[in-house]
Amino acid sequence: MNAVVTIxxxxxxxxxxxxLVRAIKGPSLADRIIAVDLILLLTAGxxxxxxxxxxTQLLWPLVTVVALVAFTGTVFVARFIEWRDTR
Amino acid sequence: xxxxxxxxSGVALMGVVLSLLAxxxxxxxxxxxxxxxxxxxxxxxxxxxxxxxxxxxxxxxxLIGVGSMVAVFMFVTAPISGxxxxxxxxxxxxxxxxxxxxxxxxxxxxxxxxxxxxxxxPTRFAALVVVWVVLxxxxxxxxxxxxxxxxxxxxxxxxxxxxxxxxxxxxxxxxAYFGLILRSNLRVAWEVLTPSNEAIRExxxxxxxxxxxxxxxxxxxxxxxxxxxxLSVDLVGHTLYVHVLQFESHEAVTAEVRKVELLxxxxxxxxxxxx
Lengths: 87, 275
Prior knowledge:
- The structure holds two protein chains of two kinds.
- Chain A is mostly helical.
- In chain A, 86% of the residues lie in helices and 0% in strands.
- By secondary structure, chain B is mainly alpha-helical.
- In chain B, strands 1-3-2 form a three-stranded antiparallel sheet, with helices on both faces.
């Protein structure tokens, strides 16, 4: 199980790095928030895998919180873009 | 390795693969709207399976429950943020590559406000208060006061109308919805793995919805983000603007949306309790 967790976390980390490239490159704000949303979701996935290692189960609330931040953040930025671009 | 760990790691690894596909799609696809196909579809199913897999691997029923709750949260939030972000991505992004754009001109009109009026429901209010107190696990006076405050806030904030759901339609809807999620992920995986971006023929297509009720219309608008190859951009009245990765014909897109409408009509009654 430990090996599976480690491999998954490395893979998720690589995925987050790839998404980070998009967050930096943009070109539009929408691209960036799509990428940041993805990075946060991959982070939540990494925490869930760490919980699967079996050391501590205190990471589960963190999974929920990170996923929640990803959702609210995306919604707020989407609203902001709408406000900015339709004035 | 126990049986639970074996199945759990299998499910989790599938989730990791989907997440990687999502990341690759976000870097590889040519426009913000097409990148959203990868991000909303693959990432939500990916992280959902990671959570369920991790819960399974831990092996206790409580943790399987927690993992499944995270998965449900992903499937509820992903279409909502996808729907909101769709319009934003259209407004902020480069739309010159669209081979058909029914949304041009419509997009710059005032953002439409919700015309929902506040229907106060005493049962919902009481339920909110009780949920609040139960969550605190302490039926003290302060928590009841807090519960009433939070319930009042929610009641004023959501301004929702009464929603009737057909109980018989719930299970078929969930099964069919999950099938759509799986198929749309296969579709995105295919688009990500085939190397050439020239093959992507993006378009934004206007589809008039047949559903008469407002709640069904909204459900369709959100669920369309999970049907294969489509993503909802905006809902104006009863017209849904859909972004498609591979545009073939207007009829093909309409047919996909009709499938979702049929599902929604089985779940929600035709006539809304709208004022």
